[in-house]
């Protein structure tokens, strides 16, 4: 992974309607999005120069902003086109794409309805979220010390910046203990997700995944469910108690950054990446490299 700092790179960032030199894409320190987490974002990947499921991502960005009470001043079609412009300007065939929208610095306080809404889109090269060596044998997950909030205590259907703080805290602790990531429970104590990726269990040939009623229903999650059904696999969405990990033969994570990542260890449970993991990795890789933006 690149060690270049993110504020000192060559290239362009699409910022409020125009491509801006990377180092000049700046905001004020008293921006509301920084102080009060009034910010939403997307994580996307471009393969062969095309962003996978671009419009779905742009639609979710707009909806996330709506759930946080603000309207992005660009249509979904305009966001799609701005994203394509930015990918082309950076010139990467394979890249990570980060649109972000936030309330500006006009008002400082909890209530900031008069703040200007900003939108930026950045593109950079980012390999797989986990190292190839870790993925081949399955990554190790610790148990997260934090739980995903209930949908009546946070806008859990949004991809809001503030919802990721407990993920950061959990992942930092896991890495300090020698793990690659952490598995989070929901507010009721059922399995939820990792700090930035959705969870699947293979139990007796069927694919089980938690109901996303307190965390994000990932675009990659839904893609994997479709690919599994196309292979004739049963896909079961349910509330999964932690003890059901003992019934699983394979476990994997999915997400735009993680793609499809097998899991080898969660607490006292051990798993061996097998045929279902291999099939989902192959099918997903084939799809993202052939599908249009």
TrEMBL record:
<dbReference type="InterPro" id="IPR001544">
    <property type="entry name" value="Aminotrans_IV"/>
</dbReference>
<keyword id="KW-0663">Pyridoxal phosphate</keyword>
<dbReference type="GO" id="GO:0052654">
    <property type="term" value="F:L-leucine-2-oxoglutarate transaminase activity"/>
</dbReference>
<dbReference type="GO" id="GO:0009097">
    <property type="term" value="P:isoleucine biosynthetic process"/>
</dbReference>
<dbReference type="InterPro" id="IPR036038">
    <property type="entry name" value="Aminotransferase-like"/>
</dbReference>
<dbReference type="GO" id="GO:0052655">
    <property type="term" value="F:L-valine-2-oxoglutarate transaminase activity"/>
</dbReference>
<dbReference type="InterPro" id="IPR050571">
    <property type="entry name" value="Class-IV_PLP-Dep_Aminotrnsfr"/>
</dbReference>
<comment type="pathway">
    <text>Amino-acid biosynthesis; L-isoleucine biosynthesis; L-isoleucine from 2-oxobutanoate: step 4/4.</text>
</comment>
<dbReference type="InterPro" id="IPR043131">
    <property type="entry name" value="BCAT-like_N"/>
</dbReference>
<keyword id="KW-0032">Aminotransferase</keyword>
<dbReference type="GO" id="GO:0009098">
    <property type="term" value="P:L-leucine biosynthetic process"/>
</dbReference>
<keyword id="KW-0100">Branched-chain amino acid biosynthesis</keyword>
<keyword id="KW-0808">Transferase</keyword>
<comment type="pathway">
    <text>Amino-acid biosynthesis; L-leucine biosynthesis; L-leucine from 3-methyl-2-oxobutanoate: step 4/4.</text>
</comment>
<comment type="function">
    <text>Acts on leucine, isoleucine and valine.</text>
</comment>
<comment type="similarity">
    <text>Belongs to the class-IV pyridoxal-phosphate-dependent aminotransferase family.</text>
</comment>
<dbReference type="GO" id="GO:0052656">
    <property type="term" value="F:L-isoleucine-2-oxoglutarate transaminase activity"/>
</dbReference>
<dbReference type="Pfam" id="PF01063">
    <property type="entry name" value="Aminotran_4"/>
</dbReference>
<dbReference type="InterPro" id="IPR005785">
    <property type="entry name" value="B_amino_transI"/>
</dbReference>
<dbReference type="InterPro" id="IPR018300">
    <property type="entry name" value="Aminotrans_IV_CS"/>
</dbReference>
<dbReference type="InterPro" id="IPR043132">
    <property type="entry name" value="BCAT-like_C"/>
</dbReference>
<keyword id="KW-0028">Amino-acid biosynthesis</keyword>
<dbReference type="GO" id="GO:0005829">
    <property type="term" value="C:cytosol"/>
</dbReference>
<dbReference type="GO" id="GO:0009099">
    <property type="term" value="P:L-valine biosynthetic process"/>
</dbReference>
<protein>
    <recommendedName>
        <fullName>Branched-chain-amino-acid aminotransferase</fullName>
        <ecNumber>2.6.1.42</ecNumber>
    </recommendedName>
</protein>
């Amino acid at each position: 992974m690149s060690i270049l700092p993110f504020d000192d790179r060559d290239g362009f960032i699409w910022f409020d309607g125009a491509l801006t030199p990377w180092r000049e894409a700046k905001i004020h320190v008293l921006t509301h999005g920084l102080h009060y987490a009034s910010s939403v974002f997307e994580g996307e990947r471009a393969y062969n120069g095309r962003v996978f499921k671009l419009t779905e991502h742009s639609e979710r960005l707009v909806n996330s902003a709506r759930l946080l009470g603000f309207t992005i001043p660009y249509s979904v079609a305009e966001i799609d086109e701005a994203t394509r412009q930015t990918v082309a300007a950076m010139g990467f065939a394979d890249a990570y794409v980060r649109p972000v929208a936030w309330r500006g610095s006009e008002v400082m306080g909890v209530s900031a309805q008069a703040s200007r809404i900003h939108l930026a889109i950045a593109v950079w090269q980012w390999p797989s979220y986990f190292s190839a060596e870790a993925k081949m044998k399955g990554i190790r997950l610790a148990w997260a010390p934090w739980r995903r909030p209930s949908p009546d205590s946070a806008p859990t259907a949004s991809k809001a910046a503030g919802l990721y703080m407990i993920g950061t805290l959990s992942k930092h602790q896991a890495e300090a203990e020698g793990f690659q990531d952490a598995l989070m429970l929901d507010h009721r104590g059922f399995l939820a997700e990792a700090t930035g990726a959705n969870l699947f269990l293979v139990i007796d040939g069927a694919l089980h995944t938690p109901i996303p009623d307190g965390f994000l229903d990932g675009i990659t999650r839904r893609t994997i469910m479709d690919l599994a059904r196309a292979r004739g696999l049963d896909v079961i969405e349910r509330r999964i108690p932690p003890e059901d990990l003992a019934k699983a033969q394979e476990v994997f994570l999915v997400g735009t950054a993680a793609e499809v990542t097998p899991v080898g260890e969660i607490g006292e449970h051990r798993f061996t990446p097998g045929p279902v993991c291999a099939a989902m990795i192959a099918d997903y890789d084939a799809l993202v490299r052939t599908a249009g933006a």
